[in-house]
Amino acid sequence: MLNKVDKAWILMKDIEKPIYNNLINKARNINIDKSIKKIPYAIEKNKLEKKIMANHQLIHHVKREIEGIRSYLSDHYVFLLTDAEGIALYVTYNEKMASTLSNLRVMPGASFNLIHAGLNAISVAKEVRSTVVVSGSEHDLDLFKSCICICTPIYMDGDPIGYMNLSVEVGKDISFAIPLLHYIVSAVEELLMKDNPHHEERRVLKLLKLHGLTKREMEIALQWLKNYSVPRISSSLGITEGTVRNMLKKIYLKTNVRNKGEFIRRFM
Fold first, then answer.
1. Residues 141 and 123: beta-carbon distance below 8 Å
2. d(Cα 59, Cα 171) in Å, to the nearest integer?
C-alpha cells in the first residue's frame, strides 16, 4: 500500500497517490479555520475520564518508558499519546514548552482527528496505519507549522489501539527521533502483551496458523509451549500419548524446528 522501501517510516510524499489524494480531499471537505491559535476541539471532561480509565495500562507504560529516556533529550520536544480515535490521553514535554503548549490547548482531551485538526501526523498515521513524518507546512493548522511531527501506531492483536507522537522544531535532526519512538512503542506493546496473557496466546496462534497447522495441532502446540508434558496434553485433549507425539513431529516439520527448545525460542 505504501512506498516504504528500506526505511521504517514514510513522508507525506511517500504515500501512494490515491491514498494521498483521498487524504487531501477529506481535509478540503472539512471546514477548519487554519489560522486558529489553539486546538479546535476537545472532548468533555467526563468522557476523557472514561477514556483514561479504559486506557490506564497503556498510559502507565508510555509514561514509564518516556521517563526512562527523558534525560537524553535536551532540545524542545513534545510526546503525545492518543487513543485509537486520536484523542489525547497523555502529553509530556520539557519545561521550555510548558507555556506555549498550554496556550495552544495541547492537553489530554484534545482531538487530533482529521475532522477536528486537519492533516497532522496523528490523523495521517490513523489513515495509513504506519509511522509517518509530517513537517512544517504539510500540516493544515498554522499552529503546527513550526514543528516536525513523527507518529507511530501502537498495535495490539493486529489493530492500532493508540498513537504515539513526538514533535520537535522544524530544522532539527530527526534521525534520533524515529528509532527512539519505535523503541518506546515496541517496549509498550511488549508490556501490554505481558499484562494480558490472552493477547500473547492470540499472537502465537496467528504465527502458528501461518505455518499451516491444523486446529488440533495448534491446541497441542500451545500446551507444548506452556511446557505441558505429553501425558498432560493427552489427558487434557482426550487423545492418546502416541497421537500427541505424532502430532508434535508434524508440528516440528511444519515450523521447521528440530526440537522443543528451538520451537519455544521461535514462538515465545
1. no
2. 30
